[in-house]
Design a protein that fits this description.
Chain A: Keywords: ATP-binding, Nucleotide-binding. Chain A: Residues 32-277 form the ABC transporter domain. Chain A: GO terms for molecular function: ATP binding; ATP hydrolysis activity. Chain A: InterPro entries: AAA+_ATPase, ABC_transporter-like_ATP-bd, ABC_transporter-like_CS, P-loop_NTPase, PhnK. The complex is a heterodimer of chains A (282) and B (239). Helices cover 37% and strands 22% of the residues of chain A. By secondary structure, chain A is α/β, with parallel strands linked by helices. In chain A, the strands form 2 sheets. In chain A, strands 5-6-7-3-8-9 form a 6-stranded mixed β-sheet, sandwiched between helices. Chain A has a 3-stranded antiparallel β-sheet with strand order 2-1-4, covered by helices on one side. In chain A, α8 links the parallel β6 and β7 (229-234). In chain A, α6 (149-162) crosses α7. Chain B has 239 residues and is of the alpha/beta class. The relative contact order of chain B is 0.19. In chain B, strands 3, 6, 7, 8, 9, 10 and 11 form a 7-stranded mixed β-sheet that branches. Chain B has a single domain, classed as Rossmann fold, CATH 3.40.50.300. The model of chain B has no long low-confidence stretch (mean pLDDT 89). Chain B is globular. In chain B, a hairpin with a 4-residue loop joins β1 (5-16) and β2. Classes of the chains: A alpha/beta (282), B alpha/beta (239). Chains A and B meet through α8, β9, α10 and α11 of A and β1 and α2 of B.
């Protein structure tokens, strides 16, 4: 009865460490660590034993302070970083039977180009700033195997219109755009291959409030219309409250709490989550 | 299981870590309801009425006891242990919650808000539109307000919108958390009429009301809470 639906993404025991680790930090089970840092060998344990699922059409929020490992988690899932251990399965890839972390780099590219879209906090990482906006989208489409120029152009136009980039500016490079517009181009690019999974890493951080609002509305609207699953990382509980059905709280690389978003906000169990919620302004 | 919902030995406390505090909220609560019943929960402020609702809705995580809900989709489910995804499903399809506060999505119009409730049940766009309009008209929300943001609404209008949003899903179980608080007399009467209609339609409801007058001849049974405990343990039968 518990498995009345299948997850789109299943991550289990994901570990990511920078450094080899030493006897004192490996065996102590994190006891000697200073937060997630080993004072003996200087190894950083960025993600520790991360396990969660993302289901069809849901928005899963990931909150945590700076340096808690949120972005590392996203980088691992998008193959920007190599994991140190753990597994992940995507239901649309080989029926969710193969651990995507152990696939060949060619297969990883295939998964990334066809089954995922990612929006970075810093648009420089997600966009070619000197290419035209529509060219940026074409790039992702070409990577996904598309070769028909007219088709790609139509798709690019449609997507950019969808994220409210005026038609007369689609040939312009993102370099000329404001931060909010760059984020919207990134979102259009991430959506271009109709991915079942969208990864959003601090997409509204650093944007002014009204621009932030338009990006959030866009995300919500996209998720409702396209029914795609979204994993959204933010340190802003307001963003999470507005968007996420369920939320994961990460501290020092570990999941300390997960639950329904309203439960996390109204009845947080862990001391850190309580502190986070108490810091909320509204 | 004959009951639609059975709360058994429910206990809830809050641990506030940075204050080193432990707050007892509910102690050994037992409540059972049959389908089609309207049960009232009374008690002073702070007696734990809303906490019971929030435990049922899983906004709160109880420490002890179980809440058995007889789901159409899953059969008997213990709401304290059900997976998050199951609870989300039940909230979308079977259990409605109306609070005295309207939790709105920013920049979402009244029409969109109600429509969303139908859409998330997997219905088609035009059907949702039709149902939403029907509901808004039913609850006599001024047509001019349909396409405005609820942040600007009066208390009574917000409340009616709140109820419309819950009712558009035709939930099997509806939790009404002080839906008449801060309403004027006429608006209260309106809500009362709505509830009477829901009773006739056979909706199972649990309601918290501050003023006992309002409850009169409305609830089938009544439970009273004092300091997080049930008074007399059993419900007073009002018939």
């Amino acid at each position: 009865m518990k498995d009345f639906e299948q997850p789109v993404l299943r991550v289990s025991h994901l570990n990511k460490q920078y450094g080899k680790g030493c006897a004192s930090c490996r065996d102590a089970g994190g006891m000697v660590l200073n937060k997630n840092f080993c004072p003996v060998c200087a190894t950083v344990y960025a993600c520790r034993d991360i396990t969660f699922e993302v289901y069809a059409g849901e928005i899963l929020g990931v909150v945590g302070e700076s340096g808690s490992g949120k972005s590392t988690l996203m980088q691992c899932l998008y193959f920007d970083q190599k994991v140190s251990g753990g597994e992940a399965y995507i239901s649309s890839y080989k029926s969710g039977r193969e651990n995507i972390f152990t696939e060949s780099s060619q297969q990883k590219r295939y998964i990334r180009n066809r089954m995922m879209g990612k929006v970075y906090q810093n648009p420089v990482l997600g966009l070619k700033m000197d290419f035209s906006s529509i060219g940026n989208i074409a790039e992702k489409l070409i990577a996904a195997g598309n070769r028909n120029v007219r088709e790609m152009e139509a798709r690019g136009k449609e997507l950019l219109e969808h994220v409210n980039i005026p038609v007369y500016r689609i040939k312009e490079a993102p370099r000329n755009f404001s931060g909010g517009m760059q984020q919207r181009v990134q979102i259009a690019k991430a959506l271009s291959n109709n991915p079942p999974l969208l990864l959003l890493d601090e997409v509204t951080t650093g944007l002014d409030l009204s621009v932030q609002a338009s990006v959030l509305d866009l995300i919500k609207q996209i998720q409702r219309r396209l029914k795609i699953s979204v994993l959204i990382v933010s340190h802003d509980l307001g963003v999470i409250r507005m968007l996420a059905d369920r939320t994961i709280v990460i501290l020092d690389g570990r999941i300390v709490e997960q639950g329904l978003t309203d439960q996390i906000l109204e009845d947080p169990q862990h001391g850190y989550t309580q502190q986070l919620v108490q810091s909320l302004l509204v | 299981m004959e009951e639609i919902i059975a709360v058994e030995h429910l206990s809830k406390y809050f641990t506030i870590h940075n204050l080193g505090k432990h707050i007892e909220a509910l102690h050994d609560i037992n409540i059972a309801m049959k389908e089609g019943e309207f049960v009232g929960i009374t008690g002073k402020s702070g007696s734990g009425k809303s906490t019971v609702f929030k435990c049922i809705y899983r906004t709160y995580v109880p420490q002890r006891g179980s809440i058995w809900y007889n789901s159409k989709k899953f059969g008997p489910v213990n709401l304290t242990k059900a997976s998050e995804r199951q609870v989300i499903y039940l909230r979308k399809h079977e259990i409605g919650y109306v609070s005295q506060f309207l939790n709105v999505m920013p920049r979402t119009t009244a029409r969109e808000l109600v429509k969303q409730g139908v859409l998330e049940m997997g219905r088609a766009e035009d059907y949702a539109e039709w149902e939403a309009e029907k509901m808004l008209a039913h609850f006599e929300l001024d047509r001019e307000l349909w396409d405005s943001y609820p942040a600007t609404f009066s208390g009574g209008e917000k409340l009616r919108l709140n109820i419309a949003r819950a009712m558009v899903k035709h939930p099997r179980l509806l939790l009404l958390d002080e839906p008449t608080a801060s309403l004027d007399y006429t608006s209260k009467l309106r809500v009362r009429e709505l509830i009477e209609q829901l009773i006739r339609e056979g909706t199972t409801m649990m309601g918290i009301f501050h003023d006992l007058e309002f409850m009169e001849n409305l609830c089938h049974r009544e439970y009273t809470l004092r300091d997080g405990k049930l008074v007399d343990r059993a419900a007073v039968n009002l018939y």
